[in-house]
Model the fold of this input.
Amino acid sequence: MKTVSLKLLTIIADEALQRRLVEDVKKLGAKGYTIEKAFGEGEHGGRVSQWEGENIRMELLVSKEVAEKILEKLARDYFEKFSVIAYLCDAEVLRGGKFL
Amino acid sequence: MKTVSLKLLTIIADEALQRRLVEDVKKLGAKGYTIEKAFGEGEHGGRVSQWEGENIRMELLVSKEVAEKILEKLARDYFEKFSVIAYLCDAEVLRGGKFL
Amino acid sequence: MKTVSLKLLTIIADEALQRRLVEDVKKLGAKGYTIEKAFGEGEHGGRVSQWEGENIRMELLVSKEVAEKILEKLARDYFEKFSVIAYLCDAEVLRGGKFL
Done:
């Protein structure tokens, strides 16, 4: 099957950020997203602490360029203030042209 | 640790398709699957619209050959009628022989 | 954006194992984790059977060395007794130094 090489961008954040994140990723070129509820622990100022409330795990299939723009936005407007995790994996996407 | 290189195939679809998808992927050689509830937005006829109801995010660890067969099945029998996303990532799987 | 190459380690297990898994991965060097509820089917003694109860899907961003230690622990203390799936993917992580 013909597939398209895209970036799978995963963002983990407090669910209070959901609306804002959705708006931002759409503005920066994401054609869709998938969200699951999640919970966990992470580093805050050197200690591992239970996250308050519920988290979301958002996944986006995007071009390298859109991924880059979203990472820049996260680094600039989110990372100082919020506990946000973001990482990229390579994905071979069926009907991947839809996401470009 | 010894691991086996497999394909991680992720399928995102309406939860109404769950039973049918499970039957199809088993018939085509998947030895198991993991499903999480999800929600999101995607492209329908050019516009980004909230998906109706709940979605599922199904993950399969399969050989390249089984992945290929499942992608062909999705392209042939699902993609015209349903909002389905499918993508492959590379995975190094512990005790991976179980999945072949 | 500058990212750090890490391993995304996914562990799927019975939710009854959650507390024990969390303790073990922290002891072995994981700086955090994300968990989602999941369900599915897998191989037990050659047959595909519905898993009893609920499962968890735990994700960790770790160095190759920590990933290796956790896989060894799973192989030694979990795989004989429990239905556990574990696999590694490559991930490019924003602010990845936090996870080392």
Remarks:
- The radius of gyration of chain C is 14 Å.
- The beta strands of chain C are 3-14, 33-44, 47-50, 55-62, 85-94.
- The longest strand of chain C covers residues 3-14.
